[in-house]
Inverse folding.
């Protein structure tokens, strides 16, 4: 499998903007996305659990409180905190269970995160989703942002899906199968396309509090918008006839 070194990252960006003018527009308007990577291991996967189903701002605040409470982001420091302390950091009951289970799995040898490095993408994802609380999205994000895999497409990521829809001119967020189809053009660098979409989301669609704002996109929508049609006289007449028929039917029924 290909990993994203700085050299491969630049090669991938050049390839993507050459094959897709929409990605070229993102790069031209906002520059290159950062090639950030979390160090692999417990801390990275714990942060992904924290990020699940909350806004960017909320996840950041929870993570900062959790880091402060732990002192050092290790399994031992995490397990030293009781459930009340973890809930005080902002973790939901479910996330407390998942995070504590992850730490125990690592400590007791049921999970070997170091072994993932030698696995192909799908094999590594299959291994990660065995961990309680880790679904495909979490596994893909770990491969993309921690193991620096080059061709992972996190199709279930809300920011990626929203940005892709806007960039490609959809009126609503595309469905999963559509996102998978669109990304075929970006192989073997779908991870870099995802980073471009995150880059677009942060610069164009994200509000200061980490939510999604309305995008006054310059991209045209797919197809032509239908103009609002005024109710004409013929439509009004049809509606009156329909109501009249319903009234007659009610009268007939009442006589029976």
């Amino acid at each position: 499998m290909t990993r994203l070194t700085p050299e491969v990252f630049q090669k991938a960006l050049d390839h993507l903007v050459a094959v897709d003018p929409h990605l070229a527009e993102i790069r031209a308007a906002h520059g290159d996305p950062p090639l950030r990577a979390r160090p692999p291991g417990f801390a990275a996967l714990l942060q992904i659990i924290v990020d699940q189903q909350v806004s960017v701002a909320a996840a950041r605040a929870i993570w900062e409180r959790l880091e402060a409470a732990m002192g050092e982001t290790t399994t031992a420091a995490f397990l030293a905190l009781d459930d009340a302390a973890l809930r005080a950091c902002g973790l939901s009951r479910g996330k407390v269970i998942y995070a504590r289970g992850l730490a125990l799995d690592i400590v007791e040898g049921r999970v070997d995160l170091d072994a993932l490095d030698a696995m192909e993408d799908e094999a590594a994802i299959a291994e990660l989703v065995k961990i309680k609380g880790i679904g495909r999205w979490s596994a893909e994000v770990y491969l993309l942002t921690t193991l620096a895999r080059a061709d992972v497409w996190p199709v279930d990521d809300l920011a990626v899906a929203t940005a892709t829809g806007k960039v490609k001119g959809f009126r609503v967020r595309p469905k999963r199968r559509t996102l998978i189809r669109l990304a075929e053009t970006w192989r073997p660098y779908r991870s870099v396309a995802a980073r471009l979409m995150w880059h677009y989301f942060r610069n164009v669609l994200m509000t200061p509090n980490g939510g999604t704002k309305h995008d006054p996109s310059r991209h045209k929508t797919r197809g032509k918008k239908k103009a609002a049609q005024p109710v004409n006289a013929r439509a009004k007449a049809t509606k009156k006839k329909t109501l009249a028929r319903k009234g007659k039917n009610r009268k007939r029924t009442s006589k029976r």
User: Anything to note?
Assistant: Residues 233-255 form the longest helix (23 residues).
